[in-house]
Amino acid sequence: MALQTQKDYDILYKKLTTNPPPGRPYGVPVAGTEKPNRTAAYRHWAVGDGPLVTALEPGINSTHDILNRSARKWPNSKCLGTRHWNQATQQWEDKYDWITYADFDIRRKNFGAGIVEIHKAINYAPEKYGVGLWSQNRAEWQIADFGIASQSLYTVSLYETLGPDTTEYIINHAEVTCVVCSLPHIPVLLKMSPRLPGLKLIVSLDPLEQGELASHTKASVLNEIASHHGIQIFSMAQVEEIGAKSGRAPQPPTRDDLCTINYTSGTTGNPKGVVITHGNAVSAIAGGRTNGNVSPKDTHMSYLPLAHIYGRLIDQIAVAEGAAIGFFRGDILGLVDDMKILKPTGFISVPRLFNRFNSAIRTATIEAEGVRGALSRRVIETKKANMRLPPGQASNTHFLYDRIWTPKVKAAVGMDKVHSMVSGSAQLDPDVQQFLRAAFANHFAQGFGMTETYAVGSIQARGDFTTGNIGGPMCCVELCLESVPEFDYTVDDKPNPRGELLLRGPVVFREYYKNDEETRKTLDADGWFHSGDICEIDKMGRFKIIDRKKNVLKLAQGEYISPERIENVYLGSSNLVNAAYVHGDGTQSSLVAIFGIDVENFAPFASKILQETITPNQVADLRIAANNPKVKAKFIKL
C-alpha cells in the first residue's frame, strides 16, 4: 500500500521502531525476486514487499523541507551549540552557547540568498551550481549547508585532511566558483589560486572584522592579496546581511535536485565525486530515524567529519527530530572533555574511538588490582552471561550494578546520559562491542553504509546482543548477494548464502560525477549498487561482512588475500596501532605490513616488555622500542 497520509506514515513509523515477533527474521526475502547467481532481495521485516521508506512525512522532499518542518515544530528549542574559547582566561568555556531552530532557519535562509547575490555580482548565475564547503564541524558549517540547499544549490565537500593536490583537483573537477571555509584555509586557497582558474569567491566562516582599524582588518589585508588573483573575500556575516537585504525568497529543491557531490577519499588515483540527490538524503534520514531513537529531548555530539556522509547523516537526523547538536572544539584529544560539558544522550562513532574507550575502561576496571578489579570483573562477566540468554531474555542491564558501578564508568568518559551508541565505517571487534555493552548498559549497534548509499544499508536491532554482523536491512533500502565464483563465494553455499553485497533503493546515489565508466562498473541496469564487500546472510536475515571483493590479490602459492581486511582486523582488535598498511606481491608467498603506533597505549605496552619506563612523549625511545625484536614478537602474538 502506498503511503499517502500522515496517518499512514505514523502507523508505519511505529511498526518500524519495534522489533519483529520473537523468532522472526530481521530481514526477509521478497518472493519472486531471485535470479541466477543472486539471492532474493532482502528487506526490513516490517516493510516486506511493500514500498521502501522515502520520506519523514508527506511533502518532505529535501533537506530544506526538513529544516522548515523542524523550525515550525520546535522554534524555541536549542539547535546548534558551540563551546567557545575564552581569550581572557586562555581556556575553553565550561558551557555551550546555543542558537534555536528559529535562529538557525533565519540565518541559513539569509546565507543562501546572500550566496546567490554575490555570485550574481560577478555575473555568474547559472540555474544550479555547486559551492565548496571546507571546515571542521561547527555550527556555521550547518548554516552554510542548509542555506545553500535553500536556493536549490548544492555543496561540494572538502576534507580537512586532504592534501593540496586533492583539494585542487576537487575544486577544479566540480567547477566550483565559491568556497566557504574556515579562516585558516583562506591562505591555502590563495596560495593555490593560480591553479584554480574558476575560483572567484571565498566566504570565511570566521569573523574578518572585529573592531580593528578599517585598514588593519583581516578582511582588508586578505582582500588586498586576493585582488591580485581576481578573488573576492567575504565574511559569513557579510553574506547573511547581503541576503537579508536582498529580499530573495528560498527556492526549494525537488527530490531530483542535487544535494551534494561528496568525494570519496580513495587510496589510489583521484577521488570519485558521488552525486547525491535530495531524494537520496531524505530517504536516508527517514530510514535512519527509525533506528536512532532520537527525540527533541536528545543532545547529539557532532565530531565525525561533516565532509563524510556518515557524520552529515547523523547531524541531519538530529535536525529532523528536533534534537540539540553540540559541536566539539575541533581537537579529538579534547572530545571527552567536550562530552563532559555537553552530556550527549547518543554517541555515534567509529571502531577506532570505541577501541580507545575499551582500552581505557578495561585498564581502570577489570585489569585493576584489589576490590575494584574483582568487582569490575564480576560485573562484566555477569552481564556477558545475561547477554547470552535466549532472545527476549537477554539483557545488558542489571538492577544493582547499574546503580553502584555503571554510572561511574559512563561519567569518566562523558557518557553519563548516553542511551544509544552506533559504530560504523569499519568492522567492530566483537569483544569490544560486548565489553562496552556491558560497561555502558545501553543500546550499542553496529551498522553498515557507504557514501554511495548515504551512509545507510543495515543495522543491528535493539535487543539483539549478537556480534560480528551488521544487522538486517534498513527500511529505506533492499539488499541481496551475488555469487563471486572466482573467489569461491556463491549464493548456494551452506549453511549460509555468500556473495558480493548489492544495495538498491531511494538512498542509492545517481552517478559518479563526470565518470560514466566507473558509474557503469558500480551501478547495474537493474539499479543495484555493487558494494565490493563479500557477505553472508544468516537464518535471522542478518548480514555479516566476511571479505572484500576489491583489493584482493593472489599470492605466489595461489592463495587469495584481502590486504584491506587484514588491515581492519589489526586496527579493530588492537589498541596499540592507529594505522596499518599491508602489501602483497603476486610473485611472493607472504605479505609485509607497516603499522603506525598509538603512542598513548604503545608506551606502557613496550615499557612492560622491556622493563623500563617509556612515556608517550619520548619519541626517540618509542622508535627504538617499536623496532625491538621482543616487542615485535609480542605484538604479533596479540
TrEMBL record:
Keywords: ATP-binding, Nucleotide-binding. One of its GO terms (cellular component) is membrane. Residues 70-513 form the AMP-dependent synthetase/ligase domain. One of its GO terms (molecular function) is ATP binding. It comes from the Eukaryota. PANTHER family: AMP-BINDING DOMAIN-CONTAINING PROTEIN-RELATED (PTHR43272:SF33), LONG-CHAIN-FATTY-ACID--COA LIGASE (PTHR43272). This is WGS project CBMI000000000 data, contig CS3069_c000167. It comes from Fusarium clavum.
